Amino acid sequence: MLPRIHSRLKQQLMDRGTDETEAEELSKNILIKRGHLNKDGSVTTEGYIRGNMSAADRAIDRAVKRSGGIPEYYEYDAEKNYAYKKTGKGVWRKKGNR
User: Fold this and answer.
1) Per residue in 3-19, pLDDT tens?
2) What is the Cα Rg of the chain in Å?
3) What's the rounded Cα separation, in Å, for the pair 18 and 62?
4) Which of 12, 80, 87, 92 could make a disulfide contact with 69, Cβ separation 3.0–4.6 Å?
5) What burial letters (b/e) apply to 59-71, b meaning 16+ CB within 10 Å?
6) Alpha-carbon span 37 to 82, nearest angstrom
7) How far apart, in whole angstroms, are the C-alpha atoms of residue 28 and residue 95?
8) In 3-state terms, what secondary structure has residue 57?
9) Nearest of 66, 83, 65, 82 to residue 74 by alpha carbon
10) How far apart are CA 69 and CA 94, in angstroms?
11) What 3-state DSSP class applies to 91?
């Protein structure tokens, strides 16, 4: 049985038209390169954490890596599968914008 993160990526590749065996091999190589799988196909700690995240958690994680701040400063838009930075008083500011 494939780890959750591996089976999810494999299914996404198959949905885009890749045949099953090629999708499995391609997804394994992608996840090894990202550090989510070991070369033997077992899940790393980072891969386990990422595999157990919801779509909202992954979108917020991507936004934090892209723009900085902390996850609490972002809100998730399920329609677009995208996290936006909240605005208003007390929101994190980039250096130099103080």
Assistant:
1) 899 999 999 999 999 99
2) 17
3) 25
4) 92
5) bbbebbeeeebee
6) 25
7) 39
8) helix
9) 83
10) 8
11) coil
Among residues 49, 71, 72, the alpha carbon closest in space to that of 61 is found at 71
Each residue of 41-52: pLDDT tens digit? Answer: 999 999 999 999
Domains in the chain: boundaries: 4-51, 54-98
CA distance 77 to 81: 6
| The token pair that represents 98 in the structure block | 């103080």
- For the cut 70, the answer to whether the pLDDT of residue 38 exceeds it is yes
The beta strand positions in 1-98, using DSSP E, are 74-77, 82-85
β-pair partners for 76: 83
The residues facing 84 across adjacent strands are: 75
d(C-alpha 24, C-alpha 60), whole Å: 27
